[in-house]
Amino acid sequence: MLIVSPFVVRFALSTAAPTDEKKRKPPVRSERPLPRLSGRTIDGGHAGTELFRNRRGVVYVFATTDRDAELVAGIVRRLEVSATKANIGFLGVNREGNPKLAVAFAKREGLRFPILADRSLSLSRKLQVPPGRSSVIVVDAAGYIVGGFTGLQGELSDLDQAYENELRRILHLQDIGGSVTPALGLMPQAPNFEVKSLDGEVVKLSELKGKVVVFVFFAPTCPHCHTTLQFLDGLARRLQQPDLHIVPVSVSNRRYVLEDMVEQLGIQLAVYVDPDNSAQRAYAHRHVVPDIVVIDREGRVVARLHGSDARAEALITMEVRQALGVENPLLLDRNGYSGEQLCQTCHRDQHQTWALTNHAYAFKTLIEHGEERNPACLPCHTVGWEVPGGYSLEQPYPHLEGVQCENCHGRGGPHQSPDFSKQGLKPVCISCHNPKHSLNFKFAERLPEVSHSMNLRFTNLSLEERQALLARRDKRVRTLFDEGDYLGTAACQGCHATEHELWAKSAHAHAFDTLSRKQEDENAECQKCHTTGFKEPGGFPEGGEALQQVGCESCHGPGGDHVRPDAQKHGTILALADKCDSCVILQICGSCHDDQNDPGFEFELTDKLELIRHGPAVMKSAKQ
Known about the structure:
Helix content: 25-40%
Distance between the termini: 57 Å
Oligomer: single chain
CATH architecture of the largest domain: 3-Layer(aba) Sandwich
Strand order of the largest sheet: 9-8-12-11-10-13-14
Number of helices: 26
CATH superfamily of the largest domain: Glutaredoxin
């Protein structure tokens, strides 16, 4: 029994996906909420689903006697290691009668999260999971179940990796399976394969040099795969290109089943088997079918996708035509947004440079901060928000997650929205990078970070170098405030006495004292975050002892222009009450509360801000 739809679709493969354009609509969200769990842990403590407050969660239900207990524990352990910086909580539920067995098992398997004792099976009944098989349940930050499984279905030795990869997909964690898949704009060389037809003919990729190859892993009883094979058979007939080789490889070697399938489908394609599973290993195939790989004349993997629907067929058709160098009519969505994958077929360089920007991962930031269902955030982190054919909470198209080509160039780009570009890029940028969501945004300064032409200089970087570039860009290191003179908190106290009083009771006011106690008050690296305006005009050390703390100007910017008698008060200092916590305030706080000095701070920001807030609502409460 599989718990939720993602695994039913991917592993059970119960129904074929419709290919009719009019039917190509995703189901409305129907996830059920995770029931509240709370109780004693196997080591005598207390825990519950409060662990998942404002973040995603993984619930692992098991008994040490489950036949797949060790394999599933291995999946969960590896997920936990990868999720340490992704704001994901873990909670176990153990059905053991003797908790000592669970304690020993958890220690042996390296499980470090709280595990609830469920001797009465009341928690398991709440979760609707049966005994005898280990279960994993994934919930989003809103508390809805969005994925999971009960038991490892099947007997394949590495099926646990398939389940792990599917969980990683749902959790937006990096796939560590070594998939031969284009990533960050790089197209890897396709590994050699050697497969055998039903007539005994051996086909090797090494013998197809200079050809375009579509390599497909399929299951002979999978209706999705049948749809894909019929589509590919029709594509080959339409193109009539001798340089196109379609190589469907069955993940099952049962000859009679394959022969029946070919006869039933009426296809002319030759089908192949992989007797020793060497091709599946070479391509890190994880039992998710159909698994379609398009290889160009240079032997590069230019596309890899799973599933069978109208969009997948459009992608394959355009990639194959592009690789063959034949006429390639656009197959953009007529009634909606097409997504970046369709754009990349003809715009490789531009797509490669886009993949090296934070725009490409804008939706992931929502997930990590538990805001993926927040309608205040989604308009600027998805494509076509609540426009027909665009992203919405009712129809959350996965291919429209993130800031993509059509955000900046209009639906379908100039092909479908020729007038969109006339407004220029600046109006598009500032519609999201407004004062509430972007700190000190300067269009001319930030444009090079997303410019295709400027980012072309990075296209020779290796995968590791590209990952490092993205990590640097994610830190958002830039000037936080406009230039000005720092004066110290005493200059603020006259007009903001109550705010100053609240600040004086905070840890910020005594930040420099902590350095003195540790004899680090002369350490410039430490002074950066324990003083105000470090090495800025009038800032520390120029400003002296008055700036030996994290003062008002550390968060609101230099106050020199703000306190002048003739100054216009509005706009001469950074007000924060109307700013987005994650988008703006985190940039200020995160410049010091980073991974090195305060790991996990960005995911605790909401709670920690309550300790230092002094906006209008807080001030009113303080006066009462």
